[in-house]
Amino acid sequence: MGLLEIQQLTKNYGQRDVLSSVSFTVSDGEFFVLLGPSGGGKSTILKILCGIEKADAGRVILAGRDITNLPPRERNIGMVFQDYGLYPHMNVFENIAYGLEARNYPKEEISTRVREAAQRLGLTPLIERIIVDLSGGEQQRVALARALAKDAEFYLFDEPISNLDPKLRAQARRDIQMLHKTRQKPTLYVTHDQNEALAIADRIAIIARGKLQQVGTPEELLTNPANLFVAGFLGAPAMNLLAGELEKNSQGYSVHFAPDFSVKLPEVWNESLQGYEKSKIVLGIPPAAILPTASESGNRVCATIDFIEPLISEVIVSFSLPGGRTGSGTFQDVDEASLELGSAIEVGLDSDQFCLFDPETELALLRGQ
Ligand code: ADP
Ligand code: MG
Question: Ligand 1: distance of its center to the CA of 18 in Å?
Fold first, then answer.
């Protein structure tokens, strides 16, 4: 088992808490993404895993072995960092071979491995070239080939493609996924780009302000964000987060926002709300839960269209809602010509997609079955 366990990692630089007790586990063969805003602590986690930074507390366990205090050269890691870490005046062959020489592989095996990795990444014609004569995309492939040539126990990528132009980025992402499929080892990939994370991750850990906010599949994070930070961070547009007053009557629970804007909550929330003592609550409405047509029986609200942004498969519409609130919806299968800036329309709300949050703790309430 190649399980990589990160246990309660804590790191301070002077007075600053850069990591506060971060724990998660990456399974054998899992493509695991660390996602979060810049300065959140993602690179610090990777540096601790490489051994180039020391944690103040916590442990790193690889396949049952505690590697927390192992020197970097004794850790068998395939790494690709944002600046690639190549030797600019060595050629492609020498750069790919570098990690293997350090591990004392026999000369012939090094040659075979380097040529195989170069072949895989289309670098064979460039094998004698020195790094400074390569384009950014080619350099990036050399860094990948170097990681691929090793039999590493796990792989780390720190924003490896953020320096590339969009066309090369798609290719590089495929190369990384290919490397991962070939090796089937735990892989940690850092990005601040949620589209990239949602596209390639088996699971994502959201890291912000040195704290682990949530771990889950892309689907889990989008439909059940654990707190207000995750709800407001993910999605383009992000979930609509509307603060209101929780009310209970014989019909059940509802959230009141303004004189002509109240939303009835479905019964699945009853159990969770019975233990909720506060009156203030935040309703989370995913953009896809705002519907261009309102049904007779369901929740609906009168909205004024402020902004229309047509995309290929959907239209993003921003609204003013009663009580000075705003919201954004993503409409599927809607005739764009039927939408008019400044006009008032009645939109439906799909209550099955609602989320609820405690504004004080910022944590999500649990939806019942
Ligand atoms: P991310 O990779 O998520 O952008 P980092 O892990 O690079 O975040 O940094 C987290 C925080 O730690 C940042 O505020 C950064 O300024 C700080 N930091 C990183 N390295 C050092 C260092 N060597 N000394 C002091 N502060 C540091
Ligand atoms: Mg970083």
Answer: 7
**Ligand 1 atom nearest residue 190's Cα:** 2
Residue 366 is assigned to a structural domain of this protein: no
* 278 and 209 belong to one structural domain: no
Nearest to 354 by CA among 281, 258, 294: 281
Pick the closest to residue 33 from 163, 194, 143, 141 (CA basis).
194
pLDDT tens track for 133-173: 999 889 988 998 998 898 899 999 999 887 777 877 888 88
Query: What does pTM read for this prediction?
Result: 0.91
Please tell me whether residues 226 and 108 are part of one structural domain: yes
With a pLDDT cut of 90, the percent of the chain lying above it is 74
Nearest of 219, 144, 223, 230 to residue 187 by alpha carbon: 144
Give the pLDDT confidence score for residue 163 in this predicted structure. Answer: 74
Residues 84 and 154: their CA atoms lie apart, in Å, by 17
Q: What is the pLDDT of residues 196-207, one digit of tens each?
A: 999 999 999 999
Residue nearest atom 20 of ligand 1, based on CA coordinates = 44
Q: What is the domain extent for residue 50?
A: 3-231
Mutate to test the pocket of ligand 1, among 44, 47, 209 (most ligand atoms within 8 A of CB): 44
Residues 173 and 245 in one domain: no
Q: How far is the CA of 123 from the centre of ligand 1 (A)?
A: 34
Q: Taking Cα atoms as reference points, which of 299, 297, 286 lies closest to residue 346?
A: 299
Whether residues 218 and 242 share a domain: the answer is no
Query: 182, 202, 231: which is the final residue of a domain?
Result: 231
Nearest CA to ligand 1 atom 27: 13
pLDDT tens for each residue of 108-120? 999 999 999 999 8
Which ligand 1 atom lies nearest to the CA of residue 158?
A: 2
